[in-house]
Specification:
Elements: E1 16-18, E2 26-27, E3 37-40, E4 68-87, E5 92-100, E6 105-111, E7 118-137, E8 143-149, E9 159-162, E10 175-179, E11 185-189, E12 204-205, E13 214-232, E14 237-245, E15 250-256, E16 263-282, E17 287-294, E18 311-314, E19 323-324, E20 337-338
InterPro entries: FA58C, Galactose-bd-like_sf
Pfam family, one: F5_F8_type_C
Organism: Cohnella ginsengisoli
Length: 340
């Protein structure tokens, strides 16, 4: 870019994108479906598919059949983990939000009625294409808006700790020794932070704690939480609790049984500086691949829209570490700028 750009970050300051030459601005979470290239199984008259991603609730897409779909093509991989649907009327009986995995369409979420508004949270995915597949409807449905968002995983910026980590004969408190083919051994890291690194290929493992082990996320400031997504290596956990720290003691906000490969937990929103996963019972030492923490509507860093004449006044919505991201759909911008 020509000239000098100065970035100023204020604690818990909403990011604001100011279009060049205009006093209008856009703040908060960015709808990643807005204005994208779309196609549909069919359209009725002027009620075309593009109307469902134009940001206007007074326009709509109406197909000619009761089972139908419309597809968004981002042109490159994009992250999403929440959708907001708005229907004109209340005719839809069942639907699925699907993404292209490179070979076939895969369901991210399946639902029933939509009505005036339905908010659907699901495990995040990255894909170049997303579609709304209406499976059944009492008559030809009309979709006013289909919005897609990427809520921020708060655990990525949290300090991770645990009751214990698995260890090896060399007294590495955070490592586990494994045997590989040939005459060598390898060590891989199983410390608490591996359950909060956003990578499914790593995990935290407790040490000789089948019952009572815990995994904790601590934040620099108070955060709001209403969703947790857990992933386990194996299927050993049979009882667990999610607990929040109120400044003096722990209190339980959710109790569950098994975790397995995926457990999604939506809760009434609460505020805390710490949250922990307490493993009450497990058949063996628990191994947690991911402990993801969300406030629905708290945008993922990296969702600012960009145009050549835009000005950025601030970023960082309630986060601890300032970061700036340019919209991944913009083909000229490929990298997230963070820690500025």
């Amino acid at each position: 870019m020509n000239g000098t750009v100065t970035y100023t970050f204020g604690k818990a300051t909403p990011y604001v994108m100011l279009p060049g030459g205009s006093s209008d601005y856009m703040a908060g979470a960015v709808n990643r479906a807005l204005g994208q290239v779309v196609s549909a199984s069919s359209s009725s008259g002027t009620d075309i598919a593009a109307n469902a991603v134009d940001g206007n609730l007074n326009t709509k897409w109406t197909p000619t059949g009761q089972e139908s779909w419309f597809e968004i093509d981002f042109g490159r991989e994009t992250t999403a983990n929440r959708a907001v649907l708005s229907e004109v009327g209340n005719h839809i009986g069942s639907y699925a939000i699907e993404y292209w995995n490179g070979t076939e369409w895969q369901a991210a979420y399946s639902g029933s009625a939509v009505g005036n508004q339905a908010t659907n949270a699901f495990p995040e995915f990255r894909s170049s294409k997303v579609r709304l597949h209406i499976l059944s409807s009492s008559q030809a449905p009309s979709i006013a808006e289909f919005q897609l968002y990427a809520d921020r995983n708060l655990a990525l910026a949290a300090k991770a700790s645990a009751s214990s980590n698995d260890n090896n004969d060399f007294s590495y408190s955070s490592y586990l020794v494994g045997e590989a083919a040939g005459n060598f051994t390898y060590r891989y890291d199983v410390q608490a932070s591996r359950a909060m690194d956003g990578a499914m290929g790593s995990y935290w493992s407790a040490s000789r704690e089948s019952n009572g082990a815990w995994l904790q996320a601590e934040f620099k400031d108070i955060v709001k939480i209403d969703r947790v997504v857990l992933s386990e290596e194996g299927n050993n956990v049979s009882s667990f609790q999610l607990q929040k720290w109120d400044g003096k003691s722990w209190s339980t906000v959710h109790e569950g049984t098994t975790i397995g490969s995926l457990r999604e937990i939506d809760m009434k929103k609460f505020s805390a500086t710490k949250i922990r996963l307490l493993i009450a019972a497990s058949d063996a030492d628990p191994k947690i691949r991911e402990f993801k923490i969300y406030e629905k509507g708290n945008a993922l860093a990296g969702s600012l829209m960009w145009s050549p004449d835009s000005r950025i006044s601030a970023t960082n919505v309630g986060g601890d570490e300032p970061s700036l991201g340019l919209d991944p759909c913009e083909p000229r911008i490929h990298d997230r700028l963070s820690g500025l």
